[in-house]
Amino acid sequence: MGYIGPNGAGKSTTVKILSGILVPTAGRCEVNGVIPWKNRLQHVQNIGVVFGQRTQLWWDLPVIESFDVLQAIYRIPAAVFQKNKARLIETLQLQELLDIPVRQLSLGQRMRSDLAAALLHGPRLLFLDEPTIGLDAVSKLAVRDFIKMLNRDDGVTVLLTTHALDDIEALCQRVMGIGRGKIVSDGSLAALRATVSHERRLIVDLVNAQEIVEDPAARLVERHGRRVELAFDPREVSPAQLISRIAAKHAIQDLFVEHPPIERIIADLYAKHGELEA
Amino acid sequence: MAIGESLKLYWLYVKLSVRAQLQYRAAFLLAALGQFLITGIEFLGVWALFDRFGRLHRWSLPEVAVFYGLVNCTFACADALSRGFDQFGTLYIKTGHFDRLLLRPRSTILQLAGHELALRRIGRFVQGLIVLVWAASVLNVEWSLGRVSLVLFTILGGACLFFGLIIIQATLAFWTTETLEIMNTLTYGGVESAQYPMAIYHVAFRRFFTFVVPLACVSYFPVVGVLGIADPLGSPWWFQYLAPAFGILFLSACLVLWKWGIKHYTSTGS
Amino acid sequence: MKRFLPYRAVVSARYRMLLQYRAAAFAGLVTQCFWGAIRLMIVAAFYAASTQAQPMSLPEVVVYIWLGQAFFGMLPWNIDEEFAQKVRDGSVAYDLLRPVDLYAFWYSHTLAYRIAPTTLRAIPLGLLAMLVLPRLGLAEWALRAPPSWVSGVLFSVSLVGAVALSTTITMLTHISLLWTISAAGMDRIMPAVVTVFAGMVIPLPLFPDWAQPFLRWQPFRGLVDVPFRIYSGNIPPAVALLEIVSQGVWVGCLVWLGRVLLARGTRKLVVQGG
Description:
The complex is a heterotrimer. Helices cover 39% and strands 20% of the residues of chain A. Chain A is α/β, with parallel strands linked by helices. In chain A, helix 6 links the parallel strand 3 (125-129) and strand 4 (157-161). In chain A, helix 5 runs parallel beside helix 6 (137-153) and helix 8 packs across helix 10 (262-272). By secondary structure, chain B is an all-alpha fold. Chain B contains 15 helices and no strands. Chain B has helices at residues 2-23, 25-53, 61-81, 83-86, 88-93, 97-102, 108-113, 122-139, 145-176, 184-194, 203-212, 215-218, 220-227, 237-242, 245-268. Chain B starts with a helix and ends with a helix. Chain C contains 11 helices and no strands. In chain C, helix 1 (5-18) crosses helix 6 (102-135) and helix 7 packs parallel to helix 11 (237-272). The longest helix of chain C has 36 residues, at 237-272. The two termini of chain C are 35 Å apart. Classes of the chains: A alpha/beta, B mainly alpha, C mainly alpha. Chains B and C meet through helix 2 and helix 10 of B and helix 2 and helix 8 of C.
């Protein structure tokens, strides 16, 4: 589940309450049937948390030794620990990193190690706070694939707080948007798009760069030499209709139909609710 | 059993910490030497004053040396164990790292105690021990089982007391986020004053350090008991043997304060 | 005077920065009042138990102890951690590139480092010990004014000498870091040595008589023992002048030593290509 919102909206506060380290002044909260802050020890035994900016590993210790300390902390039975550890090392490709002290790891390596560390004790619920921030493209994909697998194959519930909307697009079945402490949207990504706008984009690469492309149902967004980007509402004109109308008037080399960039959607969402990015 | 299990984890922390420090052997030895010297020169002062003045009321140099040696050994123990609390504000609150401790299914006290076992504190311990052993040999102390237990009990109670004071210092960080030095007054100041028998101090000072911060109960009274002399302050022998327990009680009170501090922290967010 | 402009600027900038640590200063003030009180009680107990005449009277020791607490920060018992960090990560190289005399440049930095914390503590503590204590009925434990204005003036002069000496000794410790980059060695031993021989553990005259000749011929006495005893008159004005001169001589020698070592040390640094 994705959790998005402008800075200061209350995302980290929610995560803190859900993980039990912050006590709310009003309201009800239950995770796995337990009130997080009331039964801290029991609650945190069953959750994993990864903060993008801060590692939970011991700075001077080799990664594998951090894992060993965590086994003692979480009281993981030896057999379970070995199994989980082996699997996580394999899926996150940590074999070469195990003997390196954490302070010497790159950001991507550290994030993978932190993910493994958070899952050693087999939690059913995982909170991820900005896990892909600052990562290079390869690491980002690796992390994304891992989370997908975790959710799909192991049934681990993942709450992803992020500004990286491409992560949301790639991973989330459900997206919750908050602004100024209130829920502004909750549902699938498609539903989110729909609340903001139904607008779609048609991008056409013309053969003849000089031609002017017009259509009563479409609005010109941008034009770069051969490439023309049009916006239209699929409720007024279906994509197929629009394409055939344009193709009838112009020679087309290539075309695609897209959603507006997700950043646009989110920005519009915030603007709609009177919120501004900090 | 829960305690045994926690001790196992603590032992793991200790092993890791010791190993990390011994990696930088030269730096550790020098740090320990530096500690040894800077604490040892205090006794140089004591010795010089006795050399010049001869006696301090009814107290001779070897007798004062027992007070000195014991409180230094005691504090060295507490100092070595409490680094996580001593630097709590800077290391955990300011960085937000305390949240991570809360996200682990373990007591925060245990995790912070396991932060580091500061080996270099051995400098102060060795210096105190040397003075203590010297004094004991000069005084020809009869080491009965009772006396030995009393010494060990004093070190335990005293370490608890100092540990408690440092926990108070850490608890303050929940409100101020910085590591305040103000508790140094009571910890280092306490050690300074306990190096001499409490009896020589002003009565208000004595009262404070008996009833508010029971420093006298973990230094003066038990040492009088060990020395086997009549207490100028008039305490009975059984009190001298029981007094270190107040150090342990003090620590329990400080732990309650700590829990209260956590409640405040989790209610206000960061 | 224009030549000194960069150094003056450095001193005032550092000074202003260090003044910001007010809360820490207040905590330090309380700690030091406490410490002063403990030492007073200990020393008073010793004096009360004896009837012999001593090289220093109890009132003179009281003055000594309060001044010692007030000017504690001025002693060269710690090194500037910022500087140590600069050496550790190699950014000390930037200083080598500046168009200034390196020794004087670092001296200015160190001077501010030594003075600023002291001003925050010395003045309030001094005022407290001098003015508040008598109001509380503790006049005999209060910090008394010097016995004559001459002593007072000479005290101020010797205090300047003490600050200069302290900065010079700190400089030597800093320079030693160029050799042992991981900040080992001298800065561990220094605090203990300085504390004893400056007279911060106990006033030097109270050490055994047989030790006095040794204690006379070492530089550290100019840090604490000399200025404080000038203040209380234990060192009479006539002798005080000589003492101030000897402070100056020590400063001169140690500055010369510092410059020589710095030249060697920086050469070493450049050669190592750090």
